[in-house]
Specification:
CATH class of the largest domain in chain B: Alpha Beta
Largest interface: A-B, 84 and 95 residues
Number of strands of chain B: 18
Helix content of chain B: 25-40%
Largest sheet of chain A: 5 strands, antiparallel
CATH topology of the largest domain in chain A: Uridine Diphospho-n-acetylenolpyruvylglucosamine Reductase, domain 3
Distance between the termini of chain B: 23 Å
Oligomer: heterodimer
Structural class of chain B: alpha+beta
Strand content of chain B: 15-25%
Strand content of chain A: 25-35%
Number of helices of chain A: 14
Chain lengths: 376, 477
């Protein structure tokens, strides 16, 4: 293990990682590529996972990949593309939105449960994650799940670790179920619908058998539906959808290249890059989304058919206070350090759930040293 | 298989416990007559039986909460039960336990096609969830073989799968929210109609926790629009290895069938004799099903045909009609019944990496000779979830034990090649004592810590999942 001048711990192996945590006597801020500084600002020494890197197993015929947690996401994507495969959940790249540098890692992606537009149909990162190895707050190495896609042996700690932002353990290895990369893709675009009409269109589209796997409504008024698959099938479904949804007006169809660029922008919330203001992420029942977005004010980008709403709001806005009680949750993704100290970035939980969450953290990290307070 | 000795103190307080349960439930919802509690002495794993102290059938979340509060105060173990179809003994009682069945809670609470969700009480059967929405063109995707009988409560407890999960995932991927009653009676809402939690993914760890973290009384499930059509193709091969290679090549070609089912010769012969589905005389057989419009189906089947041709199939039978599709599925769907007619059997459920298929099938053949028991293999090949059926004679002394010993060897083999003990049935009591094969002590400790948080007194389904030696101190505490 190397300890550089700024006293950053860089374990080179799982054994190193275990030792570093066992010997820690103060809080540790865990970092993959450092591209996702979300949540309460963290005190403490930095532990970086980047030296635990590399794909350990890739079986295209079994649709499975295992890699060390510090492996750059880009390296994995290149390896998968070479075999015509990909991660199903289209992980978001936070760099543009948060103005960060660095290299997104698999571990960071899992810790954030980072999932993009395809999540609405293909599931979140946690749904494709089939195995983890991690080191808990006492330095103990734990494995759960494995490298097979159907596995109900014991409790599913894999899901528990996904989206835990390093507060239960530091990931050392992760396994995924993969999907084939489609031969073709297309996007249908409608102009000028308001949010309510757009969500109605997206709900109708997701209720057809035409396998829409992206449904978004942008701040500029465009409403987008994506379809992917074999070339002839994409053409067929694009046509069927345009006919089935003609009551929402005429649509234009974009080709594969335009589709790729456009959905990368949706995935990474490009309309809010470099813009002044705080960014909130709202997860709600799609049909509730238009009214909530209107109540919030500001600009809104609707993804997941309306189930995910990105909001650009004036700095320091307490969105939860504006919305009052609602079903779902609001997370403050981008704001100044001061704001993130005053407004809890993660949705406060009802008492019985908060008790369970606290209990789990206490069991996995009894000394409270792993990203303490990040999710509070 | 060992179960902990019942608590003498609980048995002594039996009358008082039953009286307290009668205070909070309708008279017919508390069953304590020994003739009637016999109905709850086992589940689908019939080799092990033990009548419970009592069985209760509450009709609402509030009644479940009242029952659990009483049992918590009295220190009585509670065994949650869906429809009792578990093949792993997940609902096997102990003599000092109360069976808590959700069978009276079967209502659909909400269907919402705009948001593609349905909210149900968890005593509802899997198939009747689809039944509630299919007239409107929707379905609930997880489809365990027992779907006609099994309850959503048990599906959530065991994180059930099915034949079509290669495309649609298993229960956990189709579950959005639950109402969970904790052992002390606390009712919590986890998840809902939205996707993914803000905080820790409690829903993810509750699904598949075998009723050890709480009783799920209501669930919000994802429903999906029905595909335009579906059609299977049947492909026969001259060797298991070749069928295995063909599966791998189909997946590598970028086709994602909704199902790829595999049957070996013993299974083909047995089902053919039983169901007369017209299967070819061959060593291995695949049923591959694809979905879409007629043209899309034709295109995918064309690709599958090209790939299959490279493996010299002895038969390639593309369904041309609804009737033919049914016949192709008939043998597969009656496989378990066919084996049951020949003999008693136990059905294993290990999962292996697909690439290890030929090796594992060969080793199972060798074990079959070694132990002197026949094995038939039928399984979900796309995801490596095997279902070896080991045939034995329940009336022959020692045969069950031999069968179990052989089953244990097969499951160890699954773990050895990088797989797991159970892909969709759950651990229950059946695989409990093999958990050490797959997990190191610290791996099991991490899981047990989760139970410590949800159920500190270890009263919910306490003797399942974890080897008794590992959980002893906690159960005693």
């Amino acid at each position: 293990m190397s300890v550089d001048t700024a006293s950053v711990l860089r374990p080179a192996s799982e054994a190193d990682l275990s030792e570093a945590i066992r010997e820690a006597s103060a809080p540790i801020a865990i970092r993959g590529g450092g591209t996702r500084p979300v949540g309460r600002p963290l005190p403490g020494a930095v532990l970086e996972t980047g030296a635990m890197s590399g794909i350990t197993l890739y079986e295209p015929g079994a649709l499975t990949l295992v890699a060390r947690a510090g492996t750059p996401l880009a390296e994995v994507e290149v390896a998968l593309a070479a075999e015509g495969q990909r991660l199903p959940f289209e992980p978001m790249d936070y760099r543009g939105l948060l103005g960060t540098m660095g290299t997104p890692t698999l571990g960071g992606m899992v810790a954030a449960n980072a999932s993009g537009p395809r999540r609405v149909v293909a599931g979140a990162c946690r749904d494709s994650l089939i195995g983890v190895r991690f080191v808990d707050g006492m330095g103990t190495v734990v494995k759960n799940g494995g490298r097979v896609m159907k596995n109900v042996t014991g409790y599913d700690l894999v899901k528990l670790l996904a989206g835990s932002w390093g507060t239960l353990g530091v990931l050392s290895e992760v396994s995924f179920k993969l999907l084939p990369r489609p031969e073709s893709a297309a996007t249908l675009v409608w102009q000028g619908l308001d949010a309510a009409q757009a969500v109605a269109l997206m709900s109708a589209a997701l209720g057809t058998p035409y396998e829409v796997n992206g449904a978004a409504h942008l701040p500029d008024g465009r409403t987008l539906l994506r379809i992917e698959g074999f070339t002839r099938s994409v053409a067929y479904r694009a046509n069927e959808l345009a006919v089935a949804l003609a009551r929402f007006g005429r649509s234009v169809t974009l080709d594969r290249e335009e589709t790729a660029t456009l959905w990368d922008a949706v995935r990474d919330v490009a309309p809010f890059h470099g813009r002044e203001g705080d960014v909130w992420r709202l997860s709600v029942k799609p049909s509730d989304a238009p009214a909530l977005a209107a109540k919030a004010g500001g600009e809104a980008l609707f993804d997941w058919g309306g189930g995910l709403v990105w909001l650009l709001l004036p700095q320091g806005t307490d969105l939860r206070a504006k919305l009052g009680a609602f079903s779902g949750h609001a997370t403050l993704i981008r704001a100044s350090l001061d704001t993130r100290r005053t407004i809890p970035p993660f949705q406060p939980e009802p008492a019985p759930i908060a008790a369970l969450t606290r209990g789990l953290r206490q069991k996995f990290d009894p000394r409270g040293i792993l990203n303490p307070g990040l999710m509070e | 298989m060992q179960m902990p000795a019942p608590s003498a103190s609980v048995l002594d307080r039996r009358a008082r416990i039953v009286a307290r349960l009668r205070d909070v439930l309708p008279a017919e919802a508390v069953i304590d007559d020994p003739n009637e509690t016999r109905a709850y002495e086992c589940d689908g794993l019939t080799a092990y039986r033990c009548p419970p102290l009592a069985a209760v059938l509450p009709g609402s979340t509030a009644e479940v909460s009242a029952v659990l509060r009483i049992c918590h105060e009295e220190g009585v173990p509670v065994v949650p039960r869906g429809a009792g179809t578990s093949l792993a003994g997940g609902a096997l009682p102990t003599a000092d336990s109360v069976i808590l069945g959700v069978a009276r809670m079967r209502e659909v609470l909400e269907t919402d096609y705009d948001n593609r969700i349905i909210r149900v009480q968890t005593g509802r059967t899997n198939l009747s969830v689809t039944g509630a929405v299919e007239a409107d063109g929707f379905f609930y995707a997880p489809d365990p073989s027992s779907q006609l009988a099994c309850a959503i409560a048990g599906n959530i407890g065991m994180n059930s799968g099915g034949a079509h999960c290669l495309k649609y995932g298993v229960t956990t991927n189709n579950l959005l929210g639950v109402t969970l009653v904790q052992m002390d009676g606390t009712v919590v809402e986890i998840g809902g109609a939205h996707m993914d939690p803000s905080g820790l993914d409690l829903l993810g760890v509750i699904c598949g926790s075998e009723g050890q973290l709480g009783v799920v009384t209501e669930a919000t499930l994802r429903i999906l629009p029905k595909p335009e059509g579906a059609r299977p193709v049947l492909i026969g091969f001259s060797a298991n290895e070749i069928a295995g290679e063909c599966v791998s090549d189909i997946i590598k070609a970028g086709i994602l069938p909704v199902a790829i089912e595999f049957m070996d010769r013993p299974c083909i012969e047995a089902t053919e004799a039983f169901a007369h589905a017209g299967y070819p005389d061959c060593e291995a057989l695949l049923i591959v099903e694809v979905e879409g419009s007629d043209d899309e189906i034709a295109e995918q089947l064309g690709l599958i045909r090209q790939i299959a041709q490279r493996h010299d199939p002895v038969e390639f039978r593309e369904s041309q009609s609804e009737d033919e599709s049914k016949r192709i599925w008939l043998g597969r769907k009656s496989a378990f019944g066919a084996m049951g007619q020949i003999n008693d059997y136990i059905c294993l459920d290990g999962t292996i990496p697909v690439s290890e298929l030929p090796y594992v099938l060969r080793r199972i053949g060798e074990l079959s000779k070694e132990f002197g028991l026949d094995v038939a293999n039928v399984f979900h090949a796309g995801d490596g979830n095997m279902h070896p059926l080991i045939l034995f004679n329940a009336n022959k002394p020692g045969d069950l034990e031999t069968c179990e010993a052989m089953g244990a060897e097969i499951l160890k083999l699954c773990v050895e090649v990088g797989g797991c003990l159970t892909g969709e049935h759950g651990v229950g009591v059946e695989k409990r004592d093999l958990m050490d094969v797959q997990f190191a002590p610290q791996d099991l400790e991490a899981q047990m810590r989760v139970k410590d948080v949800f159920d500190p007194k270890w009263l919910l389904n306490p003797a399942k999942v974890f080897p008794l030696a590992h959980s002893e101190a906690r159960r005693a505490g």
